[in-house]
Amino acid sequence: MVETLGIAVGAFLTLAVVALHFARGTEYATPDDISQEVLERRAESVPETDFPEPMNRSIGGGGVAAGAVAEGEAEGELAEAEAEVDDDPAAIPDDEAEVFEVEYVKEGSTIEVKENTTLLEAGEEQDWDLPYACREGQCVSCAGHITNGGNSEDYVEHHTQSMLGEAELDDGYTLTCVAYPVADLSLETRETP
Ligand code: FES
């Protein structure tokens, strides 16, 4: 008897809840999508910068400018690289290169060296065992002494040397790995300042 009464009350309550639900609803309305509005408000609150920022915080800001600058930078670097190639005596074609007489004093020989060949390379082509390390003008392993008198750059063009100061150049020192002849000269190899 009690069980039947319990079941009946339970069923009644369940039906009442279902009926209420369909009669009134939950009154919950799904909100509109405000994400775009929020993004726009954030964009307005962040000032535009005059410079490109990586991952610029403001919407639409910086992306184009950053691209434009990156493009400009790339063009600048390209122009610089081209200028460097143009400046590089090694880029002079063999059939256009001027030839100079270079006396290698210690080796007891005078050879012809083209203006597109370093003093080190020219010596190596003679099978002389000349010292070197970086071959980029960044050490002094290949240093030599031009004995004609005066600044060594009256006789050679140093391409990208960063080790010899003005005083050492004035004394006639050279880095043979990056030294391209621009005049006849006499060279003592294995001479460091
Ligand atoms: S080998 Fe290093 S400067 Fe010439």
TrEMBL record:
Cofactor(s) needed by this chain: [2Fe-2S] cluster
An MF annotation (GO) of this entry: metal ion binding
InterPro entries recorded: 2Fe-2S_ferredoxin-like_sf, 2Fe-2S_ferredoxin-type, Beta-grasp_dom_sf
Alphabetized UniProt keyword annotations: 2Fe-2S, Electron transport, Iron, Iron-sulfur, Metal-binding, Transport
Region (Disordered), start-end ranges: 40-85
Domain of life: Archaea
Gene3D superfamilies for this protein: 3.10.20.30
Biased composition (Acidic residues): 72-85
Domain 2Fe-2S ferredoxin-type span(s) in chain numbering: 100-193
Family to which the UniProt record says this protein belongs: Belongs to the 2Fe2S plant-type ferredoxin family.
Name of this chain's protein: 2Fe-2S iron-sulfur cluster-binding protein
